[in-house]
Amino acid sequence: MIKKILLSGIILCILGISLFGQATLLFETFESGTKPDGWTEIKRSGVTLIPWEYMQGGRWQDHPYPDTAAAGQKNAVFGWQSYNNEATMLVTKPVNLTGRTKPELRFWHAQATWSWGGQNYSDQLKVYYRIGKNSTWHQLAEYLVAVENWTFRQIPLPSEAITDSVYIGFEGITKYGNGTCIDNVTILETEISPLRISNVGISQATAQFVASGTINNPVIKIVLNVIGNDGTCVLQNLSIRSKNTDDDDIAINGVKLYYTADTFFNASTPLGTPQSLSG
Fold first, then answer.
1. Dihedral (C-alpha) 256, 260, 265, 271: value to the nearest 10 degrees?
2. Cα dihedral sign for 43, 119, 60, 75?
3. Measured between alpha carbons, how far is 268 from 271 in angstroms, rounded to an integer?
4. Where are the beta strands (DSSP E) in the chain?
5. Residue 205 and residue 14: Cα distance in Å, rounded?
6. For 42-58, what is the mean pLDDT?
7. Which residues, in sequence order, are CB contacts of 51 under 8 Å at separation 6+?
């Protein structure tokens, strides 16, 4: 018998945005090999300030990864051989967003794994904005797991950031990884485009056997690719059909749904409540 569960009230994550009528307000490639003019650094954690560096690829140059910049010959990278969570924020020069409608931050990002002693380590990145030089930082995004290859990031800036002096801060955090890397940092103005689904992708997490008694096993990934930058896009319900040989293998309330705005699975943000398979 085919079994069915129904999960409702799920908000779509925005995984992709198409942009129209773009006007570039900030563009930095780091090709000079030095900290860009007007950019600053702030020590966020640690005894002394650990500076960002400007090179090709990851932090450890004897075997860096990634081994190239996202574009050109140089990128910015933050890393330090430490487990102590030292953190430095790389801050852009002020950007004037007065009169803009839908500004967006775009950049390329990687933070590859460093393997040592049978353990894997990766650094972290958090992205912030603030209005003026002395106001409070507000977090826009965080990337806390390994990102092995250059990955394109798009972050719509909130209406509160539309002022004559907004700063973007990239906070690199040491976790003994291969460095957190950014490249081609851009702020664009875009025209209003309604949020809508462009495509849906479904993939199986694994085709291997799952050991009995284990929990939190990823089964399937559904990617809802949303384009546009205005309004809302709400998924009213989601139906999942079981093709198990025996649904008694699944614990009561053992079907769970998680949300992430990234392309990498994690179980930090559940959606709805756990469900059981029922006829």
1. 0
2. negative
3. 10
4. 3-11, 23-28, 40-45, 53-55, 75-78, 87-91, 102-111, 114-116, 119-121, 124-131, 138-143, 147-156, 166-173, 180-190, 196-204, 220-227, 234-242, 255-258, 270-275
5. 21
6. 94
7. 35, 41, 88
* Per-residue confidence (pLDDT) for residue 155, from 0 to 100: 96
Rounded to 10 degrees, the C-alpha dihedral 139/143/149/151 comes to -40
List the structure tokens of 217: 């096993």
Query: Exposed/middle/buried for 24, CB within 10 Å: 0-12, 13-18, 19+?
Result: exposed
- The 10s digit of each residue's pLDDT in 105-133 is 999 999 999 888 888 999 999 999 999 99
* Distance in angstroms (rounded) separating the CA atoms of residues 31 and 40: 17
Structure tokens at 167: 């700063």
Q: For residues 66 and 77, what is the distance between their CA atoms, to the nearest angstrom?
A: 11
Pair type for strands 119-121 and 114-116: antiparallel
Q: Distance between CA atoms of 270 and 253, rounded to whole angstroms?
A: 13
Residue whose tokens read 């309604």: 194
In this structure, the number of other CB atoms found within 10 A of the CB of residue 240 comes to: 16
Three-state secondary-structure class, residue 147: strand
